[in-house]
Write a structure and sequence with these properties.
It contains 15 helices and 14 strands. With 402 residues, it is of the alpha/beta class. The longest helix is centred in the C-terminal third of the chain and has 25 residues, at 296-320.
């Protein structure tokens, strides 16, 4: 089945066209500057030659029409007719308390999705625009929503509950929701296969480390805890997010600098993390370069993240009563050997030992790489994530039942 996977942002629309029978990417690209002037970058296959065109994109519907026209273009495309697209799968960041698994788009689902706006105000409106754009261009093609929060719905109540008044928790739906669930699900499934043991017996920590980062404990194939919380702000230090801090710091800074709630939220989400602590950049590559140049603040910034990840691994090993594997994925997880070394060294108590030389050579690539040595009791892998394929597979499964 040919499935178009869409990831809509406020002014962008990423897409990948899959042949689900083989898992092959037939085409991929991104529309940017929607509502401004418009630019589409497109390529055939996973690594085909990239083409760029500037085209007017006043809204997501027009952007979606351009995507379909590009996919069916005799020169640039890979389809002879739009009818070859049998389904569209949408990545949705937050399902709130309403969505616990992937589902078919219906008018009732759209109304519920609108209620998720408070949980992901930067993302939900964009998702709705992407869905509306697809509906306008492909009105008869079924669409499926795949939620980043869905994988974490298996957490026990004591893991997702905050120590707040019971009435407030229930009325305002305050709980740990997590994020990056589609990525954690994909890499944990692949890691379970590599362990060659019954999924029900596996104990895996998945480390999705990028500009946004989250760590998950996956026991028996199900998430039992994750580092991101009510929002993606909780957890470890990130590119521009502070991660978990003493809540009193929030009120302290607001009083001292006169920040409004919105200004404080913007500060914690966009001016902290790597960017704020280093004073250099939100990009780990810039941090690593500064470390090599002798910048001590950059070194501290990198060590803070590694130490936090190490603590999550340790706590999750305790929560699962054991540990079979650690998986590194996403931008930094796949492409920052220094981070992996900092995390994995001095973990002999857990029986974690990696091949430092192999680790240093392992950068972003399509292949799965085992970093653990033969003596390591815990397997350590770099495993490239593929959220889009997971979305395509979910979409195929749901649409096939229609």
């Amino acid at each position: 089945m040919k499935v178009l996977v869409v990831n809509a942002g406020s002014s962008s629309l990423k897409y990948q066209l899959f042949e689900t029978a083989t898992g092959d990417v037939l085409a991929k690209g991104i529309c940017e500057r929607i509502g401004i002037d418009g630019l589409i970058e497109h390529r055939l296959g996973e690594n085909g030659e990239k083409s760029k065109r500037e085209l007017a994109m006043p809204n997501h519907a027009v952007a979606m029409k351009i995507v379909v026209d590009t996919l069916t273009d005799p020169t640039l495309g890979c389809l002879t007719d739009m009818a070859e697209i049998k389904a569209v799968g949408h990545r949705v960041v937050h399902g709130g308390p309403y969505f616990f698994e992937s589902c078919l788009v219906t008018p009732e689902v759209i109304e519920k999705l609108k209620l998720c706006n408070d949980f992901a105000p930067l993302h939900t409106p964009a998702h709705l625009m992407g869905i509306e754009g697809c509906t306008e261009v492909m009105p008869t093609v079924p669409q499926v929503l795949v939620f980043d929060t869905a994988f974490h719905q298996t957490m026990p109540d004591y893991a997702y509950t905050y120590a707040l008044p019971k009435d407030m928790i229930e009325k305002d739906h305050i709980r740990r929701y997590g994020a990056h669930g589609t990525s954690h699900r994909f890499v944990s499934i692949e890691m379970a296969k590599l362990l060659d043991m019954p999924v029900e017996e596996t104990k895996i920590v998945t480390c999705h480390i990028g500009n946004g980062s989250s760590i998950s404990a996956v026991k028996g194939g199900k998430c039992i805890d994750t580092s991101m919380g009510f929002t993606p702000l909780e957890g470890v230090e990130m590119g521009t997010r502070c991660g978990s801090i003493d809540p009193a710091i929030v009120t302290y800074i607001m009083k001292k600098y006169g920040y409004t709630p919105d200004e404080m939220s913007n500060f914690m989400n966009k001016k902290c993390g790597f960017l704020g602590l280093s004073g250099i950049s939100s990009d780990s590559r810039d941090i690593e370069a500064a470390i090599l140049a002798g910048n001590k603040q950059a070194e501290l910034t990198a060590n803070v993240l590694a130490y936090q990840v190490k603590k999550y691994i340790g706590s999750y090993a305790a929560a699962m009563d054991g540990l079979d594997a650690i998986v590194f994925t996403a931008g930094m997880g796949e492409n920052n050997p220094e981070l992996r070394e900092r995390v994995c060294k001095e973990m002999k108590f857990f029986g974690v030992e990696i091949d430092m030389e192999l680790n240093a050579k392992t950068l972003r690539q399509p292949n799965i790489v085992e970093l653990s040595t033969p003596n390591s009791k815990v397997k350590v892998y770099v495993l490239p994530t593929n959220e889009e394929l997971m979305i395509a597979k979910d979409t195929e499964e749901i649409v096939s039942k229609l």
